[in-house]
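pinging the channel bc i need a second pair of eyes. not urgent but kinda urgent?? the chain im working w is below, pasted from the shared doc
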Amino acid sequence: MKKIINSEKAPKAIGPYSQAIEANGTLYISGQIPINPETGTIPEGIIAQTEQVMKNISAILEKAGYSFANVVKSTCLLSDMENFKAMNEIYGKYYSENPPARAAFAVKGLPMSVLVEIETIAVK
C-alpha cells in the first residue's frame, strides 16, 4: 500500500510529485532542494544550501516516523563538482555512523538554479 507523506516543515513540491512516498516499510523522498519552507527563499552558497537540504530531508523523515539512521541510499546532484568537498562536509554531519550507500553526480542544471539536490531512500 502506498502512503503519501507531506511535511509542512519542508518545502511544497514545485511540480507534479509528492515530497515522499512510503510503501512496504520503505520511504522514498523526492529530491530536496534548498528552499527554506518558512520563507520560500534559497540560501546563498553550497554550505548553507546543503544544510537547508538536510533540514528538509530531516523534516520529511520525522513526519514519516523515520530518522537518518534509517536511510539506506542517497543520490546527491551538484551543479558543479567543485562543490563536492563542501557538500560532503555538511552531509557527513548527518551520517557520522553507518552512512548510507550514495552516488554523487554533477549535472548540467538543477531546479531554480540551486547548487545541490539530494534524493533519499529510508527503510524501517
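so The beta strands are 2-5, 20-23, 26-32, 71-78, 101-106, 116-123. and Residues 46-64 form the longest helix (19 residues). — does that match what u expected or am i reading it wrong
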